[in-house]
Write a structure and sequence with these properties.
Blueprint: H1 2-10, H2 12-27, H3 36-55, H4 65-90, H5 92-95, H6 107-118, H7 120-135, H8 146-170, H9 173-188, H10 203-207, H11 210-224, H12 229-253
Helix pairs in contact: 2-6, 3-4, 3-7, 4-6, 4-7, 4-8, 4-9, 4-11, 6-8, 8-12
């Protein structure tokens, strides 16, 4: 763990500079520019709400349509961040193959940059969700725990993407499978439903899905005013383990990356 944090501390200035540059480059050529950081989660939320509330007519007992929209939003925002970071990060080594022998800015930091960029929309989405929750009269002290959950999400995603981006060097088919994996995760993650709505025989899917843990934590803190301390601790430990495994994985394989690109 010390080695991981030392690497981030050593390259922190380059990481910050390249992340900001990537964000500017991503939106500079668009008509709406950086406004897409706000528009992106709003458009997705509108689509989900339209389909589940007005087309499918989904209703939850003793819950208004606005409350249901908040449930969707609290699941959709972390999923959008994960899916974008996963997609960008998994392809980042191949997209930056010229940096494979760069010792000033190692390739694992390039992956970290793309994971952070992928979570940029979530930061704005969380602010929008927080404002909507307060507007709905749900102002709890547990909102203070949301940044901790957010950090754990980035840590878990980075560890996972260090592994998938390394494997992509040797198995290029992973790039083609990314949309399928993201679609599968969208279907099995409780975005527009809660854990209580899952049939008893299928609850194992929720328990094995780290994204479902995330959504449970966000909803508990944002909407219920409850801090599931044990769940948060377990998820934090899980995130750290994935980060360490991912770092060791990419660090061990990095010397032979150049032979395969």
């Amino acid at each position: 763990m010390f080695e991981v944090f030392h690497a981030f501390h050593k390259h922190r200035q380059l990481l910050i500079a390249t992340t900001l540059q990537a964000l500017r480059g991503r939106f500079s050529a668009n008509v709406f520019g950086i406004a897409w950081i706000v528009l992106y989660p709003i458009i997705f939320l509108s689509m989900y709400s339209l389909v589940f509330i007005y087309i499918l007519g989904v209703r939850m007992p003793s819950m208004s349509s606005f409350d249901y929209v908040l449930i969707i939003f609290s699941g959709l925002v972390p999923f959008l961040a994960f899916s974008e970071a996963f997609s960008l990060g998994t392809s980042s080594i191949l997209a930056s193959r010229g940096l494979l022998r760069n010792t000033l800015f190692p390739i694992e930091m390039v992956v970290a940059r793309d994971v952070i960029v992928g979570h940029a929309t979530m930061g704005v989405g969380l602010l929008l969700l927080w404002a909507a929750v307060i507007l709905n009269g749900q102002f709890y002290w547990t909102h203070l725990a949301v940044p901790v959950i957010f950090i754990f999400q980035i840590i878990m995603t980075l560890g996972l993407v260090w592994i998938t981006s390394s494997l992509t060097i040797f198995f290029r088919d992973i790039q083609q499978a990314i949309p399928i994996i993201i679609l599968f995760l969208m279907l099995v993650s409780p975005i527009a439903y809660t854990e209580e709505m899952v049939p008893a025989g299928m609850t194992f899917i929720i328990k094995l899905n780290p994204l479902a843990w995330l959504m449970h934590l966000y909803r508990s803190c944002f909407l219920d005013g409850v801090l599931p301390l044990i769940d948060l601790t377990l998820f934090g430990l899980f995130s750290m383990v994935i980060l360490l495994l991912g770092y060791r994985f990419i660090h061990r394989l990095k010397p032979i990356f150049a032979d395969y690109v």
